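Need the bound structure for zinc ion, inputs here:
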Amino acid sequence: MMRVLTEILAARPHRGTSWIAALSGITESPTLVVESSAVTIVPDTKDWTWVVKRPCPECGLDTQSYSRNAVAGMIRDTAAAWQDLLTGPGDPRLRPSPAVWSALEYGCHVRDVLQLFDDRLRLMLTVDEPRYPNWDQDAAAVADRYGEQDPAAVAGSLGEAADAIAERFEGVSGNQWQRAGSRSDGASFTVESFAHYLIHDAVHHLYDVTGTQHAGSAAPGA
Ligand SMILES: [Zn+2]
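Answer from helper R.:
Posting the output first, comments after.
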């Protein structure tokens, strides 16, 4: 019981505190908040939908500087960066500290988000204003034993998931960008804002692992 509880608490370690840091303008190392056992770590329940409207002070991505048509390419590029992390030098299984996800665990999460969002995107394109089925990302991390998965296999499935949703976005045109859907918490999206929300998630978690902010801005007209 304790082990499971510990894992749940460790699952999404620093977004909550980083949110506070973001509001206060503090730039925070991803590992800072876990140095003290007095810090209470809670799963991430914050609403991150603001990232489709303004730049993220943590990872540096300004989703509004990218056109909706650029997102499919960004998904593929970000997936390639994840694959490098999972198969490159260093051990992706190692957590930087006990309460911070490893690159492998974040990679599993990003793979699952890509698959989940592809399902949601398909729903938005085929059903009028669907309410997405709920997904408990922290429970998924524990139930699917993210930390015990094979990094090379995760890299492969992450790439496949990225290709699938990138292809679906590439097939979106015209008024389809304004089709709507909503989460169980009531947050609503259009296909366009959904694209921006998704790419921020994948990019932000790269920052969570590497500490490196997203570089570059949109190519003109991209
Ligand atoms: Zn971010």
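Comments: The chain is about 50% helix and 5% strand. Residues 47-210 form a domain with the Four Helix Bundle (Hemerythrin (Met), subunit A) fold (CATH 1.20.120.450).
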